[in-house]
Amino acid sequence: MNATHWGVLKNQPIRQFVIESYNKISDLKFRLVAETIEKFGKDSEMLTPADQAEHMAFIVRVAGAKKGIELGVFTGYTSLCFAEALPEDGQLIAIDVEDKYASVGRKYWAEAGVDKRISLRLEGGIAVLDELLADPTQVGTFDFAYVDADKPNYPLYFERLALLLRSGGFIMFDNTLWSGKVADPAEREKDEKTHALYTVATTALNDPRFKTHSIAFSDGLTIAQKL
């Protein structure tokens, strides 16, 4: 499988070298990506770049996380990465709205032996998060969250995840550069998605409950840790 498919640097040999030579990515993951490309064509660009997914899973593993939330599953590549990083009794609540994509991931999760760690919910992010918030036993118990879903709702996701996270837990927001558009005030003014991505990154940065940093990695990754 040619790894150059992934990410905004997909045509650069360095990215291919890093993915293929500096990471141990299983054949199973390459097969998942290949099936995604074959079935969904241009939509396969929604896949999180492999080096980013492995990086985030590494953070989850190093943090000793056991309980997480993923908003935006697509065909389940990042779900697989996170589930592999969790311990045997770990739990990932993977949230989306479209089973035609997520159904691809299920067989790969099972083949990897991590399917029991993943609870797939297809009711949409706001509905599932509000359900979790209504349960006092869930509030303040999650170790991490990853958000790569509908961009206009990013600020609403942050509000809810801030309550669901434990102290020391962290949120990872994808696409916070949005092909550089967030740096352009005119783009932020006219485009709802650009405005929401800029808003969530700056809101997290200025929220006294969090320590936050962003990196120019792939399409921008913002990480906010709850104090």
Automatic annotation (TrEMBL):
GO terms for molecular function: O-methyltransferase activity; S-adenosylmethionine-dependent methyltransferase activity. It comes from the Eukaryota. GO terms for biological process: methylation. Keywords: Methyltransferase, S-adenosyl-L-methionine, Transferase. Belongs to the class I-like SAM-binding methyltransferase superfamily. Cation-dependent O-methyltransferase family. This is O-methyltransferase. It comes from Halteria grandinella. The lineage of its organism: Eukaryota, Sar, Alveolata, Ciliophora, Intramacronucleata.
